[in-house]
């Protein structure tokens, strides 16, 4: 018999009078509807404060919300038809709304909409012409050129490059509010065919618009032979990379429920479409000339070369999935699922790379050699299966065994691509479409000594295999590798790894007032490392031989955690928990060597009476890791006696420290008609980065040490009061104070006069604001 959530409760409640119902049951059976409207005033403009809530400008905002439910299925009307209309944050750009109707146990239909705007920058400025959402950015016709060659021993403003922009160039800068916006529309429906069979349909349309900031580097173009400038590569511009795309998701499911089993078959499809192939911008950087000089070419063309980089390609994903479960007996249950999916991408390469044409004139100079194919023709088949058996051996002992299998079978072909990099060098690389297989097996034992003690012991095993399916990817070689380096044919650095994990957890309850828990996990991952693998980055001369990424490296992990909760009195309770993790990476020369994380959390609650309560909390967290690095290319320690050089090593360490604490309170006055809620919280975050000299004797003084800490601290005060005028009407008012102060030296590189000579200033600043919010709302409630 198919169980319909909520139907049994509604039918049972319909047999009793409303006065006899429990308040929680009554709220479900005969809910209170409401309409809410209000106004909010923000004292200051801040994109960071309004990052997600839509309150990014100073001034007034409308507030609106509603929840209206009706139909014969409510309030003991004896039917089973229900409908609902909802709305939240209707006056902001983080609004949502929905409507649904259902005949309980038979069919349902719903429509929902939500909007979320994400502001991503503070103080962004740019001389490029174009709005967010555009994919072509050009410079004003009178902007001229920028000589990216630094001029030594010159006073401020005359060092060359973007540190010495002319008055005309500075006048071209304009400030932009940069955000990306999500508009999400969904339709859901279901139909109960009979007691056993049902179907469900879900459709979701996601519309993304706006932009995100991205650092874009220019391509070189030598036009000196034509009487023009030698336009420089690797000149950086901070662009508004467009996020103009749509995603359509469809899921159709057929479900069956029996007395002892259930099964489901689902078809899911996701279609992603990007409106653009790439984003283009003009390149003003040259290696000769004077800032501001008009870019006039002897050929009669005027303007700038155009650089282009790709945006995410459109792609499709389809999946067929089966799930099911069976109750073998009162003590034994089996569940599992299996799926197969196809992911394809076949967008044309056209429009994704720099054509090196000249804006303002006809024609151009192409620098890209011929492509072997016109599109990737990507195809990935994804397999998945999982299952679990649980068995209650005795009233005290329980066992469970499970497995998970995932395979990403990449059938994309490999080809040899020839291109010019940002430095103007011709590179020849082979794309390496990697496949991956991961298998997990776990077993657990749960033993309950008595009502006060419980023990869990578990074992987990995970194996990962990586490979490429075609000979070209496995036999490619890099031009910068030392002689004898490629001793194996493989496209992957870690073809396989195996990890064993042991888990233990213990829970103890004492006198119904104290509960204690503790746990320990030990994990050991052993990875096979093939130092002689082919990497397209290595082919471009950037591979650090001996470096292994942390997620592929061998690692031992020890994790400890414990917590205690104490109900001191009926009114007062306190809880403390903490955890510590230590990771040690071994069997590789360069990369992350070790890391650790720890945290402690404390919270307390004091209920003086039904009308007065107070709470407090404090949290401390620390994370750190240590790395050993080497100078790029051939300076590295190579395995198996291969040639190398140990004279270029340094260490990095990064630590993050976070502390936060707060207090809150609730009060009820005038027989509950007047209520107050308040809370005060403070948080402080600090990141420390240090570089140490391991073996770099020729480096200049000042190369090593610690830059200023990156800090962020926030204070928030929130006070809200509500007064119930009568049974139907409530007025609420509140005040929110929020202050953020942060300091990040990374933003120095964005500031005018401090940027590297080949980086366009954007004048972004580390977020800092003080915001005062006052609001008042009126709610009308009715049945």
Automatic annotation (TrEMBL):
Q: Please state the span of the N-terminal signal peptide per the UniProt entry.
A: none
Q: Which Gene3D superfamilies match?
A: TonB-dependent receptor, beta-barrel domain
Record's Pfam families?
MtrB_PioB (PF11854)
Coiled-coil regions, chain positions:
none
InterPro entries from the UniProt entry = Beta-barrel_TonB_sf, Decahaem-assoc_OM_MtrB/PioB
Q: Report keywords, A-Z.
A: Cell outer membrane, Membrane
Principal location: membrane
Q: Where in the cell is it found?
A: Cell outer membrane
Q: Which NCBIfam families match?
A: OMP_MtrB_PioB (TIGR03509)
Instruction: Specify the protein name.
Output: MtrB/PioB family decaheme-associated outer membrane protein
